[in-house]
TrEMBL record:
Molecular functions per Gene Ontology: fatty acid synthase activity
Record-stated family: Belongs to the enoyl-CoA hydratase/isomerase family.
InterPro entries recorded: Fatty_acid_synthase, HotDog_dom_sf, MaoC-like_dom
Coiled-coil regions listed: none
Name this protein carries in UniProt: MaoC-like domain-containing protein
A GO CC annotation given for this chain: fatty acid synthase complex
Organism: Cellulomonas hominis
Domain spans labelled MaoC-like: 181-261
GO biological process assignments: fatty acid biosynthetic process
Chain positions covered by the region annotation Disordered: 1-22
């Protein structure tokens, strides 16, 4: 297994030098070959997020396998954003063919599309997963694009205007999620994402949160699990995060058919009427 550097596409370059300004993205691609999913880790993940116990890897677990390769980009000394304090805005995944326990996988990741945001700078981390030995130009079995915001980091150029969002009107719930105070620590154990904002109220408060918050990908994985087998073996899974889920809490949830093999999942704070996330899962032909 090895991480290698290779030229890759990057977003618009930015001028370095001023405090808080972002330099250009490193033009490298990280690769890790021969990744073999751990059955015990998969079982723990399935229990935590509500996926059935099968040998097929849910798209969220594939994200877990690819996450260390993608996050290794952010902790590079030449990456223009600090690793602490970044905010997960959205995730787009295509699971094009099922992956199973026992298959060796190859992962590659790169950063792209560095651009201004009204609150700082945003970037996309892209990861692709193929079965080991598959041609590099073959379509990946899994592809994920995670969009992150670095508050306070400046990138030259005007920030894109954000279209006004309609007022959130809570729909009729079809269920609730239950997250206890230790949910962040359990997800960190299966995912490797040990960001301190998820682990304990004290470390979360030190970073500006009133108490620990759930990982965005934990809530996204719960949304995917709620759609369940209706998604089929090949599916797209898009998530936008609106506000963090404080721990402990019990967000209200609605799962609804959207037609043409698509399902929507909405989660919100029922007491405050604030949305946490919206997700769409749709079957790929």
């Amino acid at each position: 297994r090895a991480l290698g550097g290779r030229p890759a596409g990057s977003g618009p370059s930015a001028t370095a030098g001023a405090p808080g300004s972002a330099a250009a993205l490193p033009a490298v691609e990280h690769r890790l070959g021969g990744v073999v999913p751990d059955p015990a880790r998969l079982t723990a993940y399935q229990h935590l997020v509500g996926e059935p116990a099968t040998d097929v890897l849910p798209a969220g677990f594939v994200h877990v396998l690819a996450f260390p390769v993608a996050i290794a980009l952010i902790v590079r000394p030449d990456f223009p954003m600090p690793p602490l304090g970044i905010v997960h805005l959205a995730n787009r995944v295509e699971q094009r063919s099922p992956l199973r326990v026992g298959e060796a996988l190859d992962v590659r990741a790169w950063a792209q599309d560095l651009q201004p945001h009204r609150k700082g700078a945003q970037v996309e981390l892209v990861a692709e997963v193929r079965r080991a030995g598959a041609p590099a130009d073959a379509p990946p079995a899994w592809r994920g694009v995670s969009t992150y915001l670095a508050p306070g980091v400046r990138v030259p150029g005007p920030a894109p205007e954000e279209p006004p969002r309609p007022e959130f009107v809570p729909p009729v719930p079809t269920g609730r999620w239950a997250f206890d105070a230790a949910a962040g620590r359990r997800y960190a154990a299966v995912s490797g994402d040990a960001n301190p904002i998820h682990l304990h109220p004290l470390t979360a408060r030190a970073l500006g949160f009133p108490r620990a918050i759930a990982h965005g990908m934990l809530t996204a994985a719960r949304a995917l699990a709620d759609v369940g087998a209706r998604r089929g073996e090949a599916y797209a899974w898009d998530v936008e995060f609106a506000s963090p889920v404080l721990l402990p809490s019990s967000p209200a949830v609605r799962v609804a058919a959207a037609g043409d093999g698509a399902w929507t999942v909405t989660a919100w704070d029922a007491a405050r009427g604030r949305p946490h996330l919206t997700a769409e899962v749709r079957t790929l032909g």
